[in-house]
Amino acid sequence: MLIIRDLEASINEKDILHKISLQLPKGQITALMGPNGSGKSTLARIIMGDPEVQVTGGQLLFNGTNLLDLEADDRARLGIFMAFQYPQEVAGVQLFQFLKVAYEARFGCQINLIDFKKIVSQALKTLNLEENFVKRPLNVGFSGGEKKKCEIFQLLVLKPELAILDETDSGLDIDSLRIVAEGIRQAKETNPEMSILVITHYERILNYLKPDRIIIMHNGRILKEGSDLLLSEILEYGYANIINAGN
Ligand SMILES: Nc1ncnc2c1ncn2[C@@H]1O[C@H](COP(=O)(O)OP(=O)(O)OP(=O)(O)O)[C@@H](O)[C@H]1O
Ligand SMILES: [Mg+2]
């Protein structure tokens, strides 16, 4: 369970987040929505431990551990995973090798090649990806959709306790979106205690994932929390109603 309490943050001296309080309970899917620039990715980056974002106040606790004391690598080892809005290309690092190192760090043990290949093959099959996919350098030359699938591929292999998916559904064709959503659903099914924070602008992925609740951010603050009724309201009227009611 992740507890965020009165979190304040800035980037390059500019205040971005103001008194964010939020809990991500085990086994729950939380959708985080809000207009462009409202601070969704910044919140995700703080949870992951991005040093570019300065936390200026508040608390961040994961199963009782103070995350603010830990580097990004240590947070990943605790089982926190993030699928990035803009996955980076890493030349010279083969996806398979990268993931094997990440897997061994995550579970604190060596895994033999045959066992690891089995896990990888299963995940590739789930996402309709060819075996050769893992032989390529990480994200280099991947299409936009392939980069997003690669993030979910890592999710399936690393089995995190908390997964943050930052606009994983953006730029996917209809079939890829269904496959990616199915991959997320499957990861959750094999690991029911996993908590998922889905950052998105679209209802389609939420129709597949059926979040337990929806949270709306605006101007670095949490504006409203609700069920899928809130989603219907946004789809019909945009964010204006909610923003006006909150001001
Ligand atoms: N490196 C930076 N320097 C200055 N401002 C930044 C930096 N990174 C983010 N910001 C600002 O922080 C605010 C929140 O950005 P963030 O990326 O968290 O928004 P978002 O809700 O994820 O938006 P989107 O829906 O477009 O992805 C924006 O106003 C953005 O310009
Ligand atoms: Mg963003």
Q: How much is the radius of gyration in Å?
A: 18 Å
Largest sheet: 6 strands, mixed
* Count of all domains: 1
**Helix tally?**
9
CATH architecture: 3-Layer(aba) Sandwich
Bound small molecules, deduplicated: adenosine-5'-triphosphate, magnesium ion
Q: If you average the pLDDT, what whole number results?
A: 94
Class by SSE composition: alpha/beta
Q: CATH superfamily membership, which one?
A: P-loop containing nucleotide triphosphate hydrolases
Percentage of residues in helical conformation: 25-40%
What is the CATH domain class? Alpha Beta
Overall spatial form = globular
Number of strands: 10
Series of H and E elements: EEEHEEHEHHHEHEHEEHH
User: What is the fold named in CATH at topology level?
Assistant: Rossmann fold
* Widest beta sheet: strand line-up: 6-7-8-3-9-10
Beta-strand content bin? 25-35%
Tell me the span between the first and last alpha carbons. Answer: 31 Å
Low-confidence stretches: none
Description:
- By secondary structure, the protein is an alpha/beta fold.
- The chain has one domain: Rossmann fold.
- It is 40% helix and 26% strand.
- It contains nine helices and ten strands.
- The strands form two sheets. The chain has a six-stranded mixed β-sheet with strand order 6-7-8-3-9-10, with helices on both faces. Strands 2-1-4-5 form a four-stranded antiparallel β-sheet, with helices on one face.
- Strand 1 (2-11) and strand 2 form a beta hairpin.
- Helix 4 (113-126) packs across helix 5 (144-158) and helix 5 (144-158) packs parallel to helix 6 (174-190).
- The longest helix is centred in the C-terminal third of the chain and has 17 residues, at 174-190.
- The chain is globular, with a radius of gyration of 18 Å.
- The model has no long low-confidence stretch (mean pLDDT 94).
- The site of adenosine-5'-triphosphate has 13 residues, from strand 2 and helix 1.
